[in-house]
Amino acid sequence: MHTNGANSELFDNLRLELRRGCLVVAVLAQLRTELYGYALRKSLTDQGLAIDENTLYPLLRRLESQGLLVSQWREEEKRNKRFYRLSPVGETVLASLLDEWREMNSALERILAAPFDPTA
Amino acid sequence: MPTNPTELINRYLNAVKFWLPNAQHQDILAELAEDLHSQIEEREQALGHPVGEDDVVAILKRRGSPMRVASGYLPSQRLIDPALLPVYRLVLKVTILWVLIPLFLIIFVGPMFTSAHEGRVLLTFLDTAVRSAFMVVGIVTTVFALADRYHKFQDANDWDPRKLPRRAVPNPATARWSSFANFSGILGGAIFWAIVMWHRSEFVFEGGRRVILQPIWSQVYWIVLVLTLGDALIELVAFLDRGHKQLRARIRLGWDVASILCAGLLLRVGSWVELAGLDLTAAHIAKLMVWVNLSIQFTLIGVCAIKLIDALLQIRHLYRNKPDGQAPVLFTA
Fold this sequence. Notes:
heterodimer; A: Arc Repressor Mutant, subunit A; three-stranded antiparallel sheet; 4 helices; 3 strands; B: mainly alpha; 11 helices; 68% helix; 3% strand; elongated
């Protein structure tokens, strides 16, 4: 019971680490189209990548302060909303990150495809 | 009385605002408010009617406490660079193990064996111990925090494997002969004690000057002799047979404890000698006696400290060299 709990906590921590980098790529990729925070979160969730609001909004501010996103306040449906989109710098960085992601993914696929010999 | 949902949201935003930096709070709160209103709107669409107090409470609870929400926007702060933590821990460990604990034992165990009242000793000790511990930990932490803040530590990448300290390789022959030297010294001390203190109640010097020993010395004569001979025997065994390290460590630990108890027994007396036959005034003799007794007291405390350090070393040895092989073996000789 205790071991299961510890394993579950360990898995959660590892999952969090794994997701952290992926979320940045996903947010940047999704913001190739302009969206406001709530719509962005819905869109990511609908595509199977749920993200907590308390993670998303600080992340958006950080990416904007790093020059990867640009934002502007605009009125829509009688409410002021902050719309984000990828900046020119963000586009370049996203392209590099996607190259990196593809390389890592194919390396991982090769590792997993290699025959496994537990006695080696 | 039910609370207006708008009022609940305003309260929540106000609470978040408290934790946010002034320069950013307006922007962050506007976005947060917009997000909450979007969520409420979605909920209303799902329900088919305006949300009530409970719905808004559920949405806010799910969002998290105001402090947690605000913390996400704050810059990540640290007191000490994680790369420096091993050094910080090492310094704290050395300070606590080799400075604070021995110091505490001297200021606590020492007076406990004197005639001072135990309660007063305990209170003084607790007062000193707590203040010293906080001060030492505080100073070490502050020094590291300041050094980290002003980047006074060496760049972590500026190192050379060739400049790393050489690994000390224990030389069995040196250790063996060191045991023999210890055996000779301790045996000499035991013989000196056996001869000089045998049925001794006083030392008589030239001109009739006398140092009168208190009865405690004859009472502990055999105990001291046995302990000293035991010490010598342990060293002799270590010289003849370098094996059985765990057993030797246990015996030494027991012997150290016995020695500390014996020294403690002596310390409790408070006055060990009297002076007579001196051509001095009574006031001067009293003053001299205080100094002589004080020097004996310091010697006994010193013996306790040495034995205590040795006992700690034996405990460390026992802990690090578990027979079941659980302790990590980092290097092989």
